[in-house]
Design a protein that fits this description.
This protein has 390 residues and is mainly beta. The protein contains 7 helices and 25 strands.
Length: 390
């Protein structure tokens, strides 16, 4: 048994709530404000945003209107409506504390409204409304050390809720836009290495381009820094992921990238995001290191050839070539940069490394105080890592 909140969004009885409220349910009963109980069925769910739509039978049911996303501001008064701790039809008041909260670790796609309106267990799925009684967002989580409200609650903003619920009602599923790239945040060291102007804020680094994705064929390249998407500056990884996901499939979009220190305007057609695939990770003890003595930032790494046995142990795809990191020495620059045992080094300062001979040729050429950018394969994902001189 579990309980949560929800809100009727149409006279036909469509209700929006959280996915975690109805997940794995066998029977759903909705109790409306007048105390009546209604059997409900699931129309569709979206775990990636923690939203769900259910439906009760009815005609000309009372429902709530949507607010306009552009009108929502930090400091606005809001009400959180729901059934905290089973106390039905409770209302608490607060303000919007922040907008665009991401990287909270609640869902895959995060762009939360933060509020200090008290939200407690049982409020999940209930509406956050403005003083006009319009939906501002759907309450979904709290930040708490005690299990109760500590003045930090999160709601999914109205524009995302509208997009997801509309798609679920029409098709029973959510279709998301996809660029077919792997991206990572730009650390100061990476920004310097990829020649991003110091005055520029934001941007994300492309660490891989899917050969079957919409960006393949040279449209985007590994090492590009994506600065703008559809004329808007890209703030960070979370921001880009959200705006691409909400782009209609088939749309032609304009991009601004930094490539080899020069800005380029590109266009591409957004594809449909495919179903997630699980990537297996391998484990195994490392063989003895076989690298030469180095006197630079790579001195903290012991590497070895990527043999067939090691490839199998680490589950490395056949098309990946390089050398395996056997050990990262404690206290080294490599450890500070986040290098890990089992990483496959494919490039050193944009020089391709396909074998131990390549690595031993390139690595000693690095100056002692030189910043080094490595291109790695880690558990099936490609990424850049900048190693700063000690």
């Amino acid at each position: 048994m579990s309980a949560g909140s929800g809100v009727i969004i149409s006279p036909e009885g469509y209700i929006v709530t959280n996915n975690h409220v109805v997940e794995e349910s066998t029977d759903i009963t909705v109790t409306t404000f007048d105390g009546k109980e209604h059997p409900a069925k699931v129309v569709g769910t979206d775990p990636k945003t923690d939203l769900a739509v259910i439906k009760i039978e009815g005609d000309k049911l009372p429902f709530i209107e949507w607010s306009v996303q552009e009108s929502i501001r930090v400091g606005d008064l809001v009400l959180a409506v729901g059934s905290p701790f089973g106390l039905t039809s409770s209302v608490t008041m607060g303000i919007i504390s922040a907008m665009g909260r991401g990287n909270v670790g609640i869902t895959e796609y995060e762009d939360f409204i933060q509020t200090d309106a008290p939200i407690n267990p049982g409020n999940s799925g209930g509406p956050l409304v403005n003083m006009a009684g319009e939906i501002v967002g759907i309450n979904t989580a709290i930040f708490s050390r005690t299990g109760g409200s500590e003045g930090i609650g999160f709601a999914i903003p109205v524009d995302i809720v509208q997009d997801i619920t509309s798609s679920l009602i029409k098709t029973g599923r959510v279709v998301r836009g996809w660029m077919g790239i792997a991206i990572q945040e730009l650390s100061p060291a990476l920004a310097q290495s990829f020649q991003l102007p110091e005055s520029h804020q934001g941007g994300v680094l492309i660490s891989e381009v899917n050969e079957k994705g919409p960006s393949a064929g040279g449209i985007l390249q590994r090492g590009d820094v994506l600065l703008e998407y559809r004329g808007k500056k890209v703030r960070d990884v979370n921001h880009l992921r959200n705006i691409v996901a909400r782009t209609p499939v088939g749309s032609e979009v304009e991009l601004t990238v930094l490539r080899n220190g020069e800005q380029k305007k590109l266009t591409m057609t957004v594809g449909e995001r495919p179903t997630d695939e699980m990537l297996a990770s391998g484990k195994g003890l490392a063989p003895p290191a076989t690298t030469e003595k180095l006197d630079n930032v790579l001195a903290g790494l012991d590497v070895a050839p990527l043999t067939d046995e090691r490839r199998k142990q680490l589950n490395v795809p056949e098309d990946v070539a390089g050398v395996v990191v056997n050990e990262v020495k404690p206290g080294s620059a490599a450890e500070s940069a986040g290098l890990q045992q089992g990483d496959i080094i494919q490039e050193v300062n944009r020089e391709v490394v396909k074998s131990l001979d390549d690595y031993q040729r390139v690595a000693p050429m690095i100056k002692k105080e030189e910043l080094v950018v490595l291109f790695l394969s880690r558990r099936g994902n490609n990424l850049f890592v900048a190693v700063n001189p000690e």
